[in-house]
Amino acid sequence: MKFDYLIVGAGYAGAILAERIASQLDKKVIIIEKRNHIAGNAFDYYDENGVLVHKYGPHIFHTSSKKVYDYLSDFTKWNTYVHHVKAVVEGKPVPIPFNLNSVYELFPKNFSEKLESKLIEKYGYGLKIPILKLKEVDDSDLKFLAEYIYKNVFYGYTLKQWALKPEELDFNVTSRVPVYISRDNRYFQDTYQQIPAYGYTAMFEKILNHKNIRILLNTDYREAIEYIKFDKMIYTGPLDYYFDYIYGQLPYRSLRFEFENFNQSQFQEVGQMNYPNNYDYTRITEFKYLTMQKSINTTVAFEYPQEYIPGINEPYYPIPRDINNELFSKYKAEAEKLDGSVFFVGRLADYKYYNMDQIAGVALQLFEKKIANIR
Ligand code: FAD
Ligand code: UDP
């Protein structure tokens, strides 16, 4: 049997493209996935204590794209979940993104009032300012505040997460969590903040449930590719691996998760607690907040950042910084030579720090513009 498309990877990019090609073009697809499950890094499962957990770290769906939300809504019902995060600063959990409430939690009332009015006067209420931008302020009180936030919220966390200082990464990494001049404690401000009601894996099962889609698990694509006949390929794995590391290794960052179950109904006061300054882990996530599961016990995950070593651990994050972007562009030039026969897409193949909704949007667009040629 010959397949129209061979797709490497059953994460968002691979699964959405498989679904579109199968359902809209009535073409045959085979997905090759090296893990023993679908759903990529969004994979969730019930642990031995019966608690639904996210194997590769906490996944909170949020988007302002109606197109992406509507598309995924065909495959899942949703639970509304608004993510709240706190970071422990000088022993005290304060709201993150750092906002006016965080100011009042940490400083005396008079000084907080002064900072609040200066922030509103200079930037306006409701504005979001990346910490590296706020650090450039010239007012001495605001400068003090910026240095305080930088030191207590960003510096230690970033050093643990990336083994780099905030300014050694692309500006947009720490800008993901800007200082927010407001009283809004939500981690995200997107229009849609919802989690698949039966979990991500169940949503992927529905996406992939089509007569034109076959899935081969537990297989690196290289082990199978010579035995499978296909016309075109979509590759969602690491780009350097595809090209046999010809220009050297593209750096990714890895993590180690430690899951722990507690015989109590709740472990911490919010879904995610960050520890910028203490311990070797960056954050603890309590899954029940995200999944809204009711149970007498609870499971949490501690995240320990690690260097990525191919074949040993997982490439979770591209590391966005100039030197890596330059290396990526060499691989990208190789990828472009194959345009039309192999499509490269995904967080690993595009070397981009995509959220789930972003990669879903990119996959839908690739389908429309290049695969189905819909104008
Ligand atoms: P992936 O999900 O990585 O899928 C790629 C698949 O390809 C994998 O299953 C892999 O096994 C397979 N593969 C790779 N190489 C090969 C090969 N050689 N042969 C066969 N198969 C191969 N996004 C959010 O929106 N909200 C969040 O809260 C959030 N939290 C996150 C937390 C963590 C710790 C991480 C790491 C990511 C988080 N994300 C979050 C991002 C989200 O995981 C990604 O946006 C999304 O998974 C990207 O989908 P993808 O298909 O590009 O890649
Ligand atoms: N960050 C930080 N302190 C925090 C939260 C975030 O320094 O309390 C920085 C850190 O560099 C982190 C980046 O902001 O890697 C992006 O944070 P986000 O929560 O978006 O990370 P992700 O959930 O993608 O791991």
CATH topology of the largest domain: Rossmann fold
- Termini separation: 31 Å
Task: Supply the CATH superfamily name of the largest domain.
Answer: NAD(P)-binding Rossmann-like Domain
User: Unreliable stretches, pLDDT < 50, 5 or more residues?
Assistant: none
Question: Any ligands, ions or cofactors bound here, and which?
Answer: flavin-adenine dinucleotide, uridine-5'-diphosphate
Number of domains: 3
Portion of residues in beta strands equals 15-25%
| Structural class by sheet pairing and helices | alpha/beta
- Please describe the biggest sheet, giving its number of strands, its sense, and whether it closes into a barrel: 7 strands, mixed
Anisotropy-based shape: globular
> C-alpha Rg, in Å?
22 Å
| Mean of pLDDT | 97
The percent of residues in helical segments reads 25-40%
The number of helical elements comes to 13
**What quaternary form is this?**
single chain
What is the CATH-assigned architecture of the largest domain? 3-Layer(aba) Sandwich
Identify the strand order in the major beta sheet. 8-7-15-16-17-14-18
